[in-house]
Structure formats: structure tokens, C-alpha cells
Amino acid sequence: MEFKADFSAWLDLPMADKPLGLQNFDEINLLSFGGVNINVTIFNSWLVIALIVLVSWLATRNLKTGKKVSKLQIFLEEFVLWLQKETRETSGSSNSKYLLMALGLFSFIIVANLLTFIPWFRPPTASLSTTMALALVVFIAIPYFSVKNAGWKKYLRKFIEPIPLMLPMNVFSEMFSVLAMGLRLFGNMLSGVMFAGILSAFIPFLAPLTMQTLGLLTGSIQAYIFALLAIVYTSSVKAEDGL
After folding, report:
1. Burial class (CB within 10 angstroms; exposed 0-12, middle 13-18, buried 19+) of 1
2. Alpha helix (H) ranges present in the chain?
3. Where are the domains of the chain?
4. pLDDT band at 132 (very low <50, low <70, confident <90, very high)
5. Is the pLDDT assigned to residue 175 strictly greater than 70?
6. Is residue 34 predicted with pLDDT exceeding 60?
7. Cβ contacts of residue 120 below 8 Å, gap of 6+?
8. Cα(40)–Cα(5) distance, rounded to whole angstroms?
């Protein structure tokens, strides 16, 4: 099998005189192995996942209690406790059944946006393929948690409420609600990247830094919204609802 690697495009900064859009992410191949191409979006997604795994391992390899706890462990513990509180309040559940899903979605999106301070890093969340993959996770999680909470019968009954004629509308409503999550995240992330690329042609240093700082704030908000919407949709069917 032939193996090829070309990272020149990965280090090539997007400027105003170069094409901006999906081709900067999904059409630039960095690696090729046995006919399988790894584009910028996939490669940068791997970097985000690798960084999350590394930080998690560093924080948990020597867990301690008392006064000798590392700052990294304290930070991650506070982060998890905060997100646990948010998931419980949003879902109305006393346990943390939705925590892992929310933690995974929020961590991936927020780290992807944090890495935009690296000038040549293109966030995978600015690619439609990535945001729709995240939306697909939520789409699969909805029936999983609904059935786990209330069973198949009560989950399927919600599609014919308040009358059976609402079945097509309720099905499309659930599909498009999740689809809108992916499109919203994609639009916000891509617009920030493109705007920063255009301004960098006129103000090479100050404008990109300012836009990246603003983009980080926007990305953090989007990560929070995406994770909470995922909890809202996946916790919509409960055993006590009587659906």
C-alpha cells in the first residue's frame, strides 16, 4: 500500500486572495494510505481528540486528595462538577446519565475553538461534515435515552400526540431540530474563520488576534448551547411524562 503525506497545505494560512470555504477543510488531503484520504478536517479532529485524551490522562494518572491535588486536577474537577450541575438542572434528572454525552460534545467543540489561536489551525467545527456528525450523535442519543427512560411504547407514542395526524409533522420536527443544531454550529464557526481570513489581508496581526479572541468567546457560547440543546432533546421523554 502506498503512503503519502503532504502538510504544506495545512501550514498555508487562508488569506483574502485565496479561496475560502469548505474546500479549505474537506478538499485538502494531508495523508493518503491505501486509497484512503485524510483531509484537514479529519486530521484536525484527531488532534482535538488526542489533546483531550492527553489532558485527561495527565489529570487522572495520579489522582490525589487533600492539599497535594494538582491545579490541573482541580480545574477538571470543577469543570466536570459545573457541567454535571448544568445537565441535572436542564434534564430535571437527579442522576448524571446525560453527563458523558454533554461532556464529550462540549469538550470537543470548546477545545477545537481554543486551538484556533494556532494561526494555521482550521477548526473542524467549521466544516459541515463535522457539525453534522455531532448532530448525528444527538439524533441517535434521543431514542436511546428516551427508550431507556420510558420504553419503546412511550417513546413512539409521542409522535402521535396530540392526534395521530401529527405523526409526519412530529417526525420531521425531531429530525430538523437536530439538523438545525449542526447547521447553526457550522455557520457560526465558518463565518468566524472566513472573516478573520479576510481581515488578515488588511491588518496582518491585530485583526486576526482580535477576531480569534472574539471567536473564542462565540465558540464557547456555541459549545455550551450545543451541549445543553443535546440534553434538552435527549431528556424530552421521561417515564413520569405519561407519554
Report:
1. exposed
2. 23-26, 40-60, 71-91, 99-114, 128-150, 152-157, 167-199, 206-234
3. 43-241
4. very high
5. yes
6. yes
7. 10, 11, 12, 13
8. 12
